[in-house]
Queue: 3 jobs
Job 1
Amino acid sequence: MKPASLRPFLPRRALRRRLPTRRPYAFVAPGAPTLQVFNDKVKHLQRERSAGEADTSRKVDYIRDEDIKRHFPNVLDLGANACNIARALTSPPDPSSGPLHTRLSHLTSADQCSTLLHRDTHLPFNDLLPSHSRITLPPPDAPLPFAPQSFNAVLSSLSMHWVNDLPAYLSQINKILKPDSPFLASMLGGDSLYELRTSLQLADLDRRGGVSTHVSPLADIRDIGGLLTPAGFKMLTVDVDDIIIEYPDTFALMMDLQAMGESNAALTREMAGLRREVLLANEGIYRELHAEGKESIPATFRIIYMIGWTEGEGQQQPEPRGSGQMNLADVLGGGGTPGEEGKR
């Protein structure tokens, strides 16, 4: 949890000092302390360890390698990981369409983990981009180091599920976007890894007589609209997709999660890690509940996709309330009750 204000404890002389009011970056005004769910230092160390094993880390990029179908001149990839979006832009999604990197002028990839951000600087895709820069972001509780209205679009691929103060984070993204510009993002959420979550809870209960936090909490799709709207985004689109991946066993699944830098970083987790008897019980329970007689086990990754636009001139606006000329019940085939035609 962020510390409370130090203002009551400062001497009067310090309170009278005039501080510069102009800031060269978008910021969120300080307010009440926010609830901290994740340990930022632990998550940074997990991602550093993941990037240190470069070959293993590349093998588990299958979740983050998604197609990008929009283009804008000056684009920010926020939470870039190993520049997965930059690599996707240089690979045509199908033979009939050309590379997407030709449709933008400059791409800025930004991430807090410098080792992961620069993991693939030697790969060929870096030479295909027209203009590409990498920026190491400050700690999570610091403001984004970008001037207001700097970018035509902001993209984020599977990194926001580790943000503690998501409302403030989205508000900062809105500020660094130019008017009438989109924010396109995907994040893990909802029932991701529900198989692992339930089997670990049962294994804990069976072997230890209690339940501990082994899978980090995630936002639900119903929460996303309520987060984007207060941040200032308009014309929202939110969708969800389940990606089910087969693993030979739970140990392979956990090794891949560690290689991704996606291990549990909740503050309430046990520092000692999982015990051997819990791991073995988890393997049996997982297979009993979810394998359905197969040799492999499924793991569900629920991806929440979102698009929001900053306010700008010429955007589509909703019609005034009560201006509709057609009964929705007629469109949906419900019709109306007899004698109500004259009331419409």
Job 2
Amino acid sequence: MNDIKPIPQSEPINEDELKQIIYCLPIDPRTNRVILTSLLNKEKEGKWVLPKCEVNSHERQEAEVLRETYEQAGVRGQVIGVVGSFYECSKNGQKLKTHIKVYELQVDEMFKKWPEKKRRDRRWFTLEEVLGIVAKKPYLIQSIRESSLNSGLVST
């Protein structure tokens, strides 16, 4: 994404005018691993991503996180909270266009069958592997640093 910024504190923002994107950071608290998914088609196969979706409202997003993570990755759990909240600006930087939130999910249950099983593969990754996969998305790296995984991060 172009210009991802932490939430500006002084500007009033009308959330209803922005596209809302939510990501889920699903973590197994016993192993400190993160589950990622990959679409099972030739174009996207092998491209591992966090579960995410676009939502219509800035309200009730936790319910959407739970639903989408179950549908895409076949896991359920408890939403721990928001670990990242960012705004994407238009290319000229003059207008906010997207609000991105990253929710941490503590995985409690993993299903053998899930709604998108025929469309998506899933796999557990270590913290180091996930950081490498999201390296081109600084807002996801920052979110991971704010998550419960941060005890395993080394400051650079």
Job 3
Amino acid sequence: MPLFNRSLAGPGYVILNGIRIINVITLISVIAASAVMLVKTFVVSKFFFFDGVSHIVTAFISLFLIITELPLFRSYVANNWPLLAPSSGFVTLGIIMIIVGVSILGNLNKQATSQESLGTHYWSIVIASGILSLILGVVNIFASYIFRSRKLGVTARMLRSHGAVAQQKALSSRSSSSSRRRSFHLGRSDSLPLYHSKAETMEPKRNISAPLNGVSIEQPNLAHHPAITGGRI
């Protein structure tokens, strides 16, 4: 992160949290604009179904982005939406906001959502939400690249949450993740069964020495054998 140091971590924390507040306000205005266009589409347009579905989808996307911007369901977001997780930047958020803004502004060309149909006040809400979404999308992308440090593993979202201690949080998260990976690999190696080939499991052959050559063997004295002496010694 080019601006990550002790002196600028505090201002970066304030700037990024200010952008977060504007993000939430912009997304709320997108939901309001989608609701206005949804009602007008049902009233004016004959083919209102697909237009209505597009407005509902836009509203739900904006609501989901609001949830990711607030400290809600962090574990769920981290496990299922890693590009919007606390350890990621704002690039994905910015791209989605740009797409939402283009979609909002593109609806103004339709008869059901034109200025004459919506009225000046509602039309102003729709165009303002679209422009703000476009601008904030670009701002989030630039902020994600400015307030980060790839060398230290600190993202702009980490700086927004932890401020000057973001570097320590990044180090602790990396150490915990590496220990989890190491324990996972050790568990797999300990739990896997060991297989041996048939040749390895066979009983080893015994080496029997050859008979001794040139050694005379004397017959034992049978005079003291129990069969001859009748068991008497």
